[in-house]
Amino acid sequence: MTNSLGITQEGLDTALKLKGDYKNKRPLMIPGDAARMLIPENLLNHNIDLSGLDDPLPLAMVAVRDPEGPMALAAAARLCPLAGKAKLINGVAQLVGESSKHELVRECLSFVSDKAFDPGAIAEVRRHASKYIVETRQQYTAALRDNLHNLLEGSIAPRQFVSEFFELTEAGNMRHDIRQKLVLSLMLSNTVRPSVKFLILENFERMPKPVRLGIVSAVLKSEPSRHTDVIKEELKYIIAQERLAAEAH
Question: Greatest CA separation found in the chain?
Answer without folding.
Answer: 65
